[in-house]
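DM from R.C. (forwarded with permission)

"hey, sorry to bug you on a friday — could you get me a structure for this? deadline for the figure draft is monday and I only need the backbone to look sensible"
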Amino acid sequence: MLEALDVIELRVAVDAWEAGTVATVLEVLPGSVLAEVADEDGRTLEVLNVPVDVVRPLEFDGVPKRPEVSQDVPRRPVPSTDVPKRAASGRLPARG
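My reply, with the result:
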């Protein structure tokens, strides 16, 4: 039974992706899975809705393989909190 974060391999070509393409299950749906194809840096290339019967779970010693999470992933910058507050009316206060 597939679960979210299982690593799978396409057994046949799906859209532009060849058989043998490796993807990560994002969500299991009735009869299909949403699977993310990513590049070597973990950036999403495409999310596919793939029938369950055309994928094969990848395993390591009988245990479903999960994607590796790097601790060296750059953090996204924190947005500035120096944003003008909106008045109750939803409008920005007048500058003066």
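R.C.: lifesaver. The domain at 7-64 is CATH 2.30.30 (SH3 type barrels.).
me: no worries. The longest strand covers residues 22-29.
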